[in-house]
Each structure stands twice: as structure tokens, then as C-alpha cells.
Amino acid sequence: MPTLKSFAGVVLLMSMLWSLKFFYQQFDVPVRTLPYRGPLTVLIWDWPFHHVLNLSGDVCASLYHIQSCRLTGNRSLYSQADVVVFHHWELQEGMASLSSETKPPGQNWVWVTMESPTNTKALASWNQIFNWVMTYKQDSDIFIPYGELVPHLSASMEIPPKSGLVSWVISNYHQAQKRAKVYQELAKHLKVDVYGKASKKPLCPDCLLSTISRYKFYLAFENSVHQDYITEKLWRNALLAGTVPIVLGPPRANYEQFIPASSFIHVEDFGSMKELASFLRTMNSSCYQNFFNWRERYRVKLSTDWRERFCTICAQYSSLPQGKLYSDLESWFRT
Questions:
Q1: What is the SS3 assignment for 323?
Q2: DSSP 108-143
Q3: Among 90, 93, 101, 115, the one annotated catalytic
Q4: Which of 2, 99, 159, 212 places its Cα 20 to 30 Å from the Cα of 315?
Q5: So what's the pLDDT on residue 16?
Q6: Is residue 162 scored above 50 in pLDDT?
Q7: Is the pLDDT of residue 121 over 70?
Q8: Topology versus the membrane, per the UniProt entry (predicted)?
């Protein structure tokens, strides 16, 4: 017969569990669990651009707090893999040649790219193959942006000291690109200090951020214009460096889905590059400081480690659609 004391203990325990549940709901603490009896095995068929990363130990749990997730590059485990990941560059170069008939029952294949549609070829060859897509596009099954702003209690408004007005780092400069034409027009009205492989001022890898941070503004110009295609040019080269991005890419409304409207300048905000140049030259200190108000609450988180991206598959596995197949991968990607 349960005693009053034991009954009170049960009530106390239930109360504590309810309070814990309320705590997680109130603060929206993410709990990453998988409705799976054992760890998921994610086979990386080819490391992106052949840059093999260390997978020793429980990488997903130790580095990214994602449990029950095993990454492997060992193709001999193919028949045991729950998910197989294919990076498009290797497919494009003819370095991966599995057919859908060899796929074990219940196994899902993921198509991965971080390139824009303009720089992605040979998509028609891979219809009726992939179950899920993992890209920078927000409508991907597994969304992996180049960066994001995350809440941060100890964020700071400190702005690096400035000695220059506008800079740009460019590796591949082609006259036909929109960014080249916009730069040429802007340069008629304003001096832009250009660095990188495509200039006469190459930068060492460790010099990038320290150099850019000395300028008030940075040309975060994408190599092609597509929905959601917002790369490290914004996240690392501008926001992380502590300068104000002048962006060229998708429309302003698309950028505002990722960052505050007051944190950047869009080239389409102005009727001409002459107007933009005048705006930059005549900006007062107070107006300039306002571009950094986001720093009071947020910090920049870059997504650069492919292990973290692949671990994300496990974190989202339980909510991914089952039985899905991309019949026209090219149409989806180019939309």
C-alpha cells in the first residue's frame, strides 16, 4: 500500500518534470533527438573538392552536440548506410557513378551543393535519383546557409578603427559579370581599393579580415544573382570583419530575411552609382554607427565546416519527408 510520503514524492517528481518541460518550451531550447533505435550512419561518398576532414571519435556529438549520428567516408559501409551524401562538384566531374538500382531499401540519397545555378552544370543527368537536397536555398530539405546571425548576450558595438572608405576582394573577375559592370560604374565616382587574385594587391589568407576591417564599407558582390544566394562575401568579409556591406545579389527583401534592414546597403537602393558614391562620401558618424546596432544582440556564425553540415542531416532526419524523389532536379534548383 503506497504511503502518503511516497505519494507526495511522486507528485513532487511529476511537478519537477512538468516544470522542466515548461522551461524548455519557454526558452525554446533545442533538443536534438532521433526516433531511431541506433545511430544513423551518413556515408560521405566524396568529400567536397577532395578536402578530407578528420572523423575520429564521435564528431557530431563532441563538436556540434548532435547525438546518434555517425559520419563515415568508408564506401565499404554503403549497404549499412542510412543516408548517402553526394556533393555535386564530384558528380559534375564524373567522379561518382552509382545508379538508383543499387540503393538498399530505406536508404536515402542527398544531393549537396553550395554553388549558384549559374556555376552548376550537368544537372539533367541526375533526375529521379535523389530523395533530399541540401543547399543554401531556404526551400531545401536540409537548409545550410553560408552564415547566420545568432543571439549573443555579450555582443559588442565596438567598431574597428577605419582608415579607408571602400574595399573589395575579388578572385575571379569577368567583364561579363554584373558585379564587374557595377564596380566599373561606381569606380568612376569613388575610389575603391581592390584586393585579391584578380588585382595587383593579393592578400595572404590571414590578412583578409584585418585588411577589410580598416574600411568603412565593403563591396559584398555575388558572382551571380539568385534567390537566397548570399555567401561568405556578406557573412565573413563584411559583417564578421566589422565593416558595412554594400551588397549586390538577390533583392533587398531576400537579404532582410537573413539580416536586419539597417545593417547593409543594397546597390538597388540608389538610382545610379553616382548617387551611391555621394551617399558614402557624405555619411556622418552617427548614421554610420547605426549600421552596427545589430551587434548589441547578435554575433555572426559562419557555416564552413562540412562535418557540421553533414551532421545537420541527422539533426533534421526525423522531420525529413519519406518517399520523396526529385524528378527534375534542374528545374527545382534553377527556380
A1: coil
A2: EEEEE--S-GGG----GGGTTT-SEEEESSTTSSEE
A3: 115
A4: 99
A5: 38
A6: yes
A7: yes
A8: Single-pass type II membrane protein; Single-pass membrane protein
β-pairing, 193-195 with 215-221?
A: unpaired
Element (H, E) at 149: strand 147-151
pLDDT for 103: 85
* Parts of the chain belonging to CATH 3.40.50.11660: 150-302
Which CATH fold would you assign to the domain 40-144+304-334?
Answer: Rossmann fold (3.40.50)
Residue 134 neighbours by CB under 8 Å, 6+ apart: 85, 110, 111, 112, 140, 141, 142, 143, 144, 309, 312, 313
Query: Which three cell numbers mark 130?
Result: 535523389
Mean pLDDT of 179-183: 96
Residue 300 pLDDT: 96
- Known catalytic residue at 115: yes
SS3 content of the chain, % helix, strand, coil (to 5): 40, 15, 45
Joined together, the cell numbers standing for residue 241 give: 570583419
Residue 202: predicted pLDDT: 83
CA distance 180 to 178: 5
CA distance 298 to 301: 9
From 278, 288, 267, select the one nearest 183 (Cα to Cα).
Answer: 267
Dihedral angle sign, alpha carbons of residues 320, 326, 329, 335 = negative
Q: Which three cell numbers stand for residue 82?
A: 542510412
What confidence score (pLDDT) does residue 158 get?
Answer: 86
Cell 531556404 maps to which residue? Answer: 138
Superfamily of domain 150-302: Glycosyl transferase family 10, C-terminal domain (3.40.50.11660)
pTM of the model: 0.85
Mean pLDDT on 276-296: 96
